[in-house]
Specification:
- A two-stranded parallel ribbon has the order 1-2.
- It is mainly α.
- It is 47% helix and 10% strand.
- The protein contains 2 helices and 2 strands, in the order αβαβ.
- GO terms for molecular function: oxidoreductase activity, acting on the CH-OH group of donors, NAD or NADP as acceptor.
- Keywords: NADP.
């Protein structure tokens, strides 16, 4: 189990690249490539571990994962608002962040 205070920069960066930065870059590229055929929905896999409003205090060892999902959720909020403000076909894009449930691994 990894304590937050013991996490290395590279471990934290790996979580951010995998769960936040990568999905956002893919969405940006999809919106660029698909124009003018803008997708109607962009669906992202998030987690309740990234919820700012429903902190799961029993998830010891998941700080980097939770922080990366919280970053994704916040980026998606901004992306949805920016697309609405932009207008045109992109204003109708639905941004979804779903929590598929807990998986035993």
């Amino acid at each position: 189990m990894h304590k937050t205070s013991d996490r290395s920069f590279s471990d934290f960066a790996l979580h951010l690249h995998t769960n936040s930065i990568g999905p956002i870059i893919i969405a940006q590229r999809l919106l660029q490539v698909c124009s003018p055929l803008v997708p109607s929905k962009l669906v992202f896999i998030s987690s309740d571990s990234g919820s700012a409003g429903d902190f799961q205090g029993h998830e010891d060892g998941f700080a980097a994962y939770g922080a990366s999902k919280a970053a994704l959720n916040q980026m998606l909020r901004h992306m949805a608002l920016e697309l609405k403000r932009k207008g045109g076909p992109e204003a109708d894009v639905c941004i979804l962040a779903i929590h598929p449930g807990t998986v035993q691994t």
